[in-house]
What we know:
- The protein is α+β, with helices and mostly antiparallel strands.
- It folds into two domains: 2-222, no CATH class; 227-301, no CATH class.
- 38% of the residues lie in helices and 20% in strands.
- The protein has seven helices and eleven strands.
- It has helices spanning 14-26, 48-62, 108-127, 134-155, 186-195, 207-224, 233-249; strands at residues 2-4, 70-75, 81-84, 96-101, 159-166, 172-181, 261-264, 267-271, 278-282, 286-290, 297-301.
- It has a three-stranded antiparallel β-sheet with strand order 1-6-5, with helices on one face. Strands 2-4-3 form a three-stranded mixed β-sheet. A three-stranded antiparallel β-sheet has the order 7-8-9.
- Helix 3 (108-127) runs antiparallel to helix 4.
- The two termini are 42 Å apart.
- The mean pLDDT is 84.
Amino acid sequence: MFNDRPVQRGFPNRARIHAALRVLHKASIPPFPETFWERWGGYDPKNASVSIQKLVRKVARRYQLNVGTIVVTFMAMPNPGRVELRGAPGQGGNDFFVELNSNLKDQPRTISAVLGHEVAHIFLHKHGLGFPETLDNEVLTDVASAMYGFGALMLDQFVQTEMRNQLPDGRVQITTHERAMGYLTPDELGWLLAKSDFDVGGQLDSRAARSVGKRGRDMFLTEATTPPFPSSMWRRWMYEIRRWWAEWRGLNELFDESVPYAFGDGKVTFRCPICTQKMRLPVRRELTATCPCCSRKLACRT
């Protein structure tokens, strides 16, 4: 779950995130209103086994999990953490086992982020939610943990470290190393946090994470103000020109991840800016549409 340089950037998982958001919203799983932060008090690396059990119980309560015992142990392993799931999805026992990398014992913020991801696996397993492909499932798990308030902790694991090396000719060579956590890119995570209406604000320690969080919010605001939603004058003009062209030529445009909206058969197709559910409305109307997936009311001028 930790990615050492090169850290992938951009939005390669956009379609997977869209699918994950729709699955979670259709299951009536709304975003949690507060960011999870480790305030269980007095984490003691010398008594990590007891401290970690207190923390995992708090994480399970955040997910409103009705489970028996989640046993967490530290051990030497290549990954930050892993969870053991038993039984068929939606069934199985109530006891689960989570293993954490022993190198994380003195990093409570990182431990919280890793536990948020691992317990999200239990949460999705108990609700019978998932996809056939492994990567799709891991993206779904990251999206679920972000929606339940662990996204800020996950994004805060994105750090950039500069290394300076003196060359023989006297010049200084600066190399930037990056580290990130999870299966989402930092850009995707910052965008998802904004989409879920989390205000990470000054809660992030990493300067690189704060920069990504701001870019993610800016991108979300751009999506939320793209026609047919209320928008700037020039974007409205562009929308109306494309609408006129499609009507005049009788076009039936293809709608996919690369376009914000498409016209055809006297209707416009676009996505809900919150859950990304595809919506289709008659053109030349001014109305308040209700998303069939997340039930968000959206002011539209088609």
